[in-house]
Write a structure and sequence with these properties.
It is a single chain. The protein has 213 residues and is an alpha/beta fold. The chain folds into 2 domains: 132 residues, 3-Layer(aba) Sandwich (Rossmann fold), CATH 3.40.50.2300; 58 residues, Arc Repressor Mutant, subunit A (Orthogonal Bundle). Strands 2-1-3-4-5-6 form a 6-stranded parallel sheet, sandwiched between helices. Helix 2 runs parallel beside helix 3, helix 7 crosses helix 9 and helix 8 crosses helix 9. The longest helix has 19 residues. The model has no long low-confidence stretch (mean pLDDT 85).
């Protein structure tokens, strides 16, 4: 006997939820256990119906998608999340995966791909739409190209910044003035395209950008 996959649908368009339900419930191993029209309702239902998989749109009212994905993983760590949305911007894909999503599929996907993605992601396997894959690869290439263009001093500052050191600590370690380090940090943030040093540190660790000397 096949193990039944308990699926929660989260999309603000009723017609999308209806279409997904109609398609997925044709499969004898998939059971739709709930529907949510926004992030807060999705979080509420996760606690109530204990899904194995949440099929989630990235554009819904209420809490942002990253907060919703993080909330789902906090409430039910064993649940997997398949983002099912219309766009695959690199930041959107990256943020969804970093927050805990296991799969990312666009709404132009073929019926067979959707069904397979549901089964694969519910089992814990990653699934990325080809466009999402291209976006992630392009983003990684851009980041690595950017870091390849860093000066030796910028690399040293980024490495120390990623360790959580303050400008004063970095200045002392590199025997430079605090004002000089502040200038380097601003250059690094600009080159990486991030807003603050915390994001730069997270990016450096997550993408392995600090393993250089």
């Amino acid at each position: 006997m096949k193990e039944i996959i308990r699926v929660l649908l989260a999309d603000d368009h009723a017609v999308v939820r209806e279409g997904l339900r109609g398609l997925l419930e044709q499969q004898d191993d998939i059971d739709i256990v709930g529907e949510a029209e926004d992030g807060p309702r999705a979080l509420q239902l996760v606690s109530q119906v204990a899904p194995d998989l949440v099929v989630l749109d990235m554009k819904m009212p209420g809490a942002g998608p990253v907060e919703t994905i993080s909330g789902i993983k906090r409430l039910r760590p064993e649940a997997h999340i398949l983002v099912f949305t219309s766009y695959a911007e690199d930041s959107q894909v990256r943020d969804a995966l970093a927050a805990g999503a296991t799969g990312y599929l666009l709404k132009d996907a073929l019926r067979a791909d959707l069904i397979r993605a549901v089964r694969e992601v519910s089992a814990g396997y990653a699934w990325l739409h080809p466009q999402a894959q291209r976006q992630m690869l392009d983003w990684i290439r851009r980041r690595r190209s950017t870091v390849d263009g860093f000066t030796a001093r910028e690399r040293s500052v980024l490495a120390l910044l990623a360790e959580g050191q303050s400008n004063k600590q970095i200045a002392r370690n590199l025997e430079l003035t605090e004002g000089t380090i502040k200038g380097y940090v601003s250059q690094i943030l600009d080159k990486l395209g991030v807003a603050d040093r915390t994001q730069a540190a997270l990016l450096a660790h997550r993408e392995g950008l600090i393993g250089f000397e």
